[in-house]
């Protein structure tokens, strides 16, 4: 079949679609109420063609949702077929198995009408500040304890908000103004997206998006298959333990490559547990696709074509395919390891592309009352060390596999009255290697609310470090210290006023034999505060006598003195 558009015209329209998604994101951020959206960027905005296929995603979105958004769209259109939708209708759900893996992510979809015909859809996803229940964390033993479940239903009908639904939500959440305000922001941004898409169709005199989408999907799929063909056919396996709740959990992956296609099977993974760390298959699929996109076509915009050569399976009831009613609240605590599984499986086939293990993000849900008596529910995010790659050191304090922002200290302290006492890089935490793993950070928090608060910690790497590749050493373990006492980074705690929480973020794994690292690079790391003088000698065999430090840089670096 001959392509309808030449390369230049298609490229212009493709870029316009991405720009529209970015405008949807901008509208969502500007009109939202919660820091989770307007400061931290836990969101996704997409455009779909009239068949419900993902056409474009914003550049400032959570990239893994390329794997969940198309499935959510298909479930919505199954519940509400196209012929039943009318102008002004918007659908909503937070079903973990139909959406993005837990109740705290709300998905809102809007059909776009042109001349009384649906020509496309927009879909937005955000993490809400609260959804009721026990709160965002690992403590739930069933999905019913984790919050309000919203089946696929209408958020608006013919342009009128569903006030009955809004009333139910306001009654069930701790932060009704923020949660419902963010839902209204969904309505706004989807309306903006529809208007912009219609303007584009008018500008280019397009009656249907499917002619564009078919070419975009074809080019993207071909690019993905060409990259997969670089990998020799075969089965590539990897497995490792991670911290569970009552003991270690084994995660396992077998990647089967055959003729431009790849399948991931997670057989051998430990079974589900009665705590909120189970991962619905949609989330496992999302991070499987994301990992492959990182390894193959990272510069191409996300769309349905990238997923065509990739299939994902996991046994029902394993922790990477959790089924109802098992809880999934903190599914990211386990699900974020999926890219590391895939990188480990393919490290020998693609040694120049994979990265060593990263230290994984920290998330802490904080609930309580501010000094002014206002109730709050917020999410503290912090980043650990990024894994090293062949020819590249890992970045310090870099989020992976998500790309959310840390909330500005001033905003965080205003919203929660939890004081950020200090932040600094965690010296010597990056895994040694020819290319050093990224260092973590040290963060000291204090409860300044004048009330006890509740914190739900959601993190790992406190027992099993980020491993290095190709001879690289592991990064430092993570530690949470509440008032000088080590605590479980997957636990629930109630700090009193004045209590402090010290977070020592994990380091990323190194890459390559440490003996091959040039002493001048070690010198640079000392001057930058990544490596201490003692660490240089112990980990790299580099002493002060072998390098010349710049005096002013030595003074500026973190703790560069003998203990």
What's the SSE blueprint?
Elements (H helix, E strand, L loop, with lengths): L6 H25 L3 H4 L4 E7 L4 E4 L11 H11 L10 E4 L11 E10 L2 E11 L25 E5 L2 E2 L1 H10 L3 H28 L6 H19 L5 E10 L4 E11 L2 E5 L15 H15 L14 E4 L18 H4 L2 H8 L16 E8 L5 E8 L26 H8 L1 E8 L15 E7 L6 E5 L20 E4 L2 E3 L4 E2 L6 E5 L14 H10 L4 H8 L10 H6 L7
Parallel strand pairs: 10-11
Antiparallel strand pairs: 1-2, 1-5, 3-4, 3-6, 4-5, 6-7, 8-9, 9-10, 12-13, 12-16, 14-15, 15-20, 16-19, 17-18, 17-20
Helix pairs in contact: 1-5, 4-5, 7-9
Report what the structure shows.
This protein has about 575 residues and is α+β, with helices and mostly antiparallel strands. It folds into three domains: about 5-220, no CATH class; about 355-515, no CATH class; about 520-563, no CATH class. The protein is about 30% helix and about 20% strand. It has helices at about 5-30, 35-40, 70-80, 165-170, 175-205, 210-230, 280-295, 330-335, 340-345, 410-415, 520-530, 535-540, 550-555; strands at about 45-50, 55, 90-95, 105-115, 115-125, 155, 160, 235-245, 250-260, 260-265, 310-315, 360-370, 375-380, 420-425, 440-445, 455-460, 480, 485, 490-495, 500-505. The chain has a seven-stranded antiparallel β-sheet, with helices on both faces. Strands 14-15-20-17-18 form a five-stranded antiparallel β-sheet. It has a four-stranded mixed β-sheet with strand order 8-9-10-11, covered by helices on one side. A hairpin with a 4-residue loop joins strand 8 and strand 9. Helix 4 packs across helix 5. The radius of gyration is 24 Å and the shape is globular. The relative contact order is 0.11. Mean pLDDT is about 95; it is low at about 550-563.
């Amino acid at each position: 079949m001959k392509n309808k558009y030449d390369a230049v015209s298609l490229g212009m329209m493709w870029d316009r679609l991405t720009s529209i998604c970015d405008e949807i994101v901008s509208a969502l951020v500007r009109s939202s109420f919660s820091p989770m959206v307007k400061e931290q960027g836990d969101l996704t905005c997409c455009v779909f063609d009239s068949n419900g296929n993902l056409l474009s995603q914003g550049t400032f979105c959570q990239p893994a949702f390329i794997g969940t958004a198309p499935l959510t769209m298909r479930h919505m259109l199954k519940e509400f077929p196209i012929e039943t939708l009318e102008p002004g209708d918007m659908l909503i759900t937070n079903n973990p198995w139909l959406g993005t893996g837990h109740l705290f992510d709300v998905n809102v979809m809007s059909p776009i009408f042109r001349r009384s015909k649906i020509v496309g859809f927009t879909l937005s996803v955000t993490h809400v500040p609260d959804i009721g229940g026990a709160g965002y964390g690992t403590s739930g033993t069933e999905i019913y304890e984790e919050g309000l479940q919203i089946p696929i239903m209408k958020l608006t009908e013919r342009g009128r908000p569903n006030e009955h639904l809004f009333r139910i939500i306001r009654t069930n959440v701790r932060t009704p103004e923020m949660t419902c305000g963010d839902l209204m922001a969904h309505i706004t941004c989807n309306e903006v997206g529809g208007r912009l898409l219609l303007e584009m169709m008018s500008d280019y005199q397009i009656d249907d998006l499917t002619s564009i989408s078919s070419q975009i999907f074809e080019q993207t799929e071909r690019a993905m298959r060409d990259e997969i063909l670089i990998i020799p056919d075969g089965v590539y396996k990897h497995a490792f333990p991670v911290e569970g709740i009552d003991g270690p959990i084994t995660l396992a992956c077998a990647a089967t490559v055959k003729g431009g296609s790849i399948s991931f099977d997670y057989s051998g993974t430990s079974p589900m547990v009665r705590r909120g760390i189970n991962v619905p298959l949609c989330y496992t699929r999302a991070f499987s696709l994301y990992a492959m996109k990182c390894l193959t076509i990272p510069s191409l915009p996300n769309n349905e074509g990238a997923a065509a050569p990739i299939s994902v399976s996991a046994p029902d009831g394993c922790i990477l395919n959790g089924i109802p009613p098992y809880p999934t609240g903190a599914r990211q605590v386990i699900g974020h390891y999926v890219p590391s599984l895939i990188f480990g499986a393919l490290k020998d086939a693609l040694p120049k592309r994979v990265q060593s293990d990263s230290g994984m993000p920290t998330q802490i849900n904080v609930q309580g009352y501010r000094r002014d008596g206002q109730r709050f529910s917020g999410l503290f995010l912090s980043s650990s060390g990024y894994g090293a790659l062949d020819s590249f050191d890992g970045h310090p304090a870099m989020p992976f596999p998500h790309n959310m922002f840390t909330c500005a200290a001033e905003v965080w302290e205003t919203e929660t009255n939890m004081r950020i006492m200090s932040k600094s890089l965690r010296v010597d935490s990056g895994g040694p290697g020819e290319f050093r793993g990224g260092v973590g950070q040290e963060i000291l928090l204090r409860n300044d609310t004048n009330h006890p608060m509740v914190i739900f910690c959601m993190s790992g790497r406190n027992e099993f470090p980020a491993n290095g590749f190709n001879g690289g050493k592991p990064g430092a373990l993570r530690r949470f210290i509440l008032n000088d006492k080590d605590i479980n980074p997957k636990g629930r705690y109630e700090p009193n006023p004045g209590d402090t929480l010290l977070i020592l973020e994990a380091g990323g794994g190194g890459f390559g034999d440490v003996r091959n690292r040039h002493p001048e690079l070690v010198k640079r790391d000392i001057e930058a505060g990544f490596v201490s003088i003692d660490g240089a000698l112990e980990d790299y065999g580099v002493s002060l006598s072998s390098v010349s430090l710049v005096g002013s840089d030595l003074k500026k670096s973190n703790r560069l003195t003998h203990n």
